[in-house]
Amino acid sequence: MAKFQLYGRVFITANIKTLTGLHIGGSNTGLEIGGVDKTVIRNPLTGQPYIPGSSLRGKMRSQTEKINGMPLNNPIVENVRIHSCQSDQEYKANGGCPVCIIFGVPADNKKVKEPTPARLVVRDVLLSDASLKKFAEEKVKSFSEIKTEVAIDRVTSQATPRSLERVPAEAVFGPAEFVFGIYETADYERLETVIKALKLVEDDYLGGAGSRGSGKVKFESIEVSARKHDAYMNVVKFQKPFDSIQDLAGRFDELKNWLAVNVPIKNVPAE
User: Hey, which of 33-42, 88-97, 140-149 has the most confident mean pLDDT?
Assistant: First the structure.
């Protein structure tokens, strides 16, 4: 039976600022005539929009697949396919698959016999207190805007209006939390893939209707901290925040050396 030693965790926190309206779809159950065609996902208790960790993590995964040219060989739902290694050899080749090791192997994949724990956890991200206050001051009880678009039939030129609910630009969600597990020395380097994925999300879009202008975001107020396995209740913070993902990427060697000191890989006595 495989045994895995967790040597510690790295915590990256950041605010997510919407530069254009953000649409991450919710349920249209109970949709009324004349209502919004596509609503945003909301907390059912508070009615406030949020960014699901699964949406953010999924976008990071898909961007990592694209930048590495990975084959999308595993269907998960209709019209959605992801990469999944087809053998232990593929999983471990060239230092390990940058997608399957970090984001995990799907549960139905039986071809990888010895997968290690997925490295990355992404939490749901709520609206920041500052944005909630701003919505309250402006008396925007829905926390959203309605964008009306018009679909044009290319043959008949008939126009069909459709409405899209979005969280407006300048709203801030956060802090978002990305938790990265350290299991082996190679994980120090793998953390750079996570940082690159965040930059790829910034340069692409989050949520739906991105090709029509929605979903441009920026990560701000970025902080890094860590806990090591043999002193897990003690959190160690990196000396100062990062101004941007670009700044974080530019100082990765400094961050990696800091991690090697504060979350060291060392021999653990066998049980």
Answer: 88-97
